[in-house]
Amino acid sequence: MMGPGQGPERGAASFLRVLAIMLVIALAAFGAHARAAAPGDTRSYDDQLLRLSEILGSVHYLRAVCGGEDGQRWRQIASELIRSEGSSALRQATIAQRFNRGYRSYRRTYRRCTPSARNSIARFVKEAREISNRLIKLAE
Q1: For residue 21, which phi and psi values (nearest 5 degrees)?
Q2: Which one-letter DSSP state was computed for residue 111?
């Protein structure tokens, strides 16, 4: 049983802060790795990177609908992702487009916070953490 101030929202907020820190670390580590990679617009990890960008867009929208006090955190992380990984205008646009796709797909589905929206946030955060961990391992 949870006491006052320890409800699922507080736990989710703490978890999201940890995830945001992990993502920033992954982006910093992977950005350095990407700059050392061969020239071109594609990388072996692009599928994971684009999925991560889409998740960030989805979480950005859903957290706002569900009253999260994240502000622009998820958009800022996506901007950092674009900055660190966007070696060309096309690459930057592709990453941004995936963020927007995630945002728009949930904007069409949810106008208010529901248990399903909260479950989606939890699933996305878990998936983002897994992707971040894989990207960090690739960068090592």
Answers
A1: -65, -45
A2: S
pLDDT in tens, 43-53: 888 999 999 99
Instruction: Determine the longest span between alpha carbons in the chain, in angstroms.
Output: 54
The model's pTM is: 0.73
CA separation, residue 112 to residues 64, 88, 100, 122, 139 (Å): 10, 37, 19, 16, 38
Residue 20's pLDDT is what? 59
| Burial of 112 (C-beta count, 10 Å sphere; 0-12/13-18/19+) | exposed
Q: Are 53 and 99 in contact (CB under 8 A)?
A: yes
The conformational region for residue 19 under phi > 0 = left, psi -120 to 50 = alpha, else beta, is: alpha
Are 95 and 86 in contact, with CB atoms under 8 Å apart?
A: yes
Residue 135 contacts residue 30 (beta carbons within 8 Å): yes
d(Cα 125, Cα 73) in Å, to the nearest integer?
14
**Residue whose structure tokens are 């101030």:** 5
How far apart (Å, rounded) are the C-alpha atoms in residues 76 and 13? Answer: 17
